[in-house]
Please model this.
Amino acid sequence: GENVEQHPSTLSVQEGDSAVIKCTYSDSASNYFPWYKQELGKGPQLIIDIRSNVGEKKDQRIAVTLNKTAKHFSLHITETQPEDSAVYFCAADTNAGKSTFGDGTTLTVKP
Amino acid sequence: GAVVSQHPSRVICKSGTSVKIECRSLDFQATTMFWYRQFPKKSLMLMATSNEGSKATYEQGVEKDKFLINHASLTLSTLTVTSAHPEDSSFYICSARLLAGTGELFFGEGSRLTVL
Model:
């Protein structure tokens, strides 16, 4: 089955700096790669996603890049703000609709 | 976006009792819903896939008699933790998609279960 590895597990940045979280996946059949943000005591929420036919996608301060050959994708957050502090999960989905999640990255943005 | 509502958000029960958690899709119909368990500072562990009108599909290692799932309508799935024990204490989350196949998962707010 699919295996998703996520790094780093914790990340601390100064407000205004950029944050990068990386994930690798193992199943070449995976074709949808979402990123979810989870705040304490709440369910995850999608912040950005990318499909396998696209190499990069951007939405304001958030961007995701995908390298299908190397089977890795990354989340980039620029101009970080304290409200960006949360746990971020990457996931890889196959056509069957099964999502495999990374272990999560706890991002702390220091004011 | 679509809304998935989960209830209750917190529940405390005594050992040996059963607890039911509801997951509702408020503005869309979900033929499939997913149930996860999340331990502190850990990732989401898929427990089962709930299919409307049919039996749930459980992941390896998840006891189907312990965690009963019922998906009786296109907008409601329930998870019942039977004969709960302290080790069942956890954060339980459900999710659903607007369409079958791949695509954004809409998550409920989660239910914190504490078994005394």
Notes: Chain A has no helices and eleven strands.
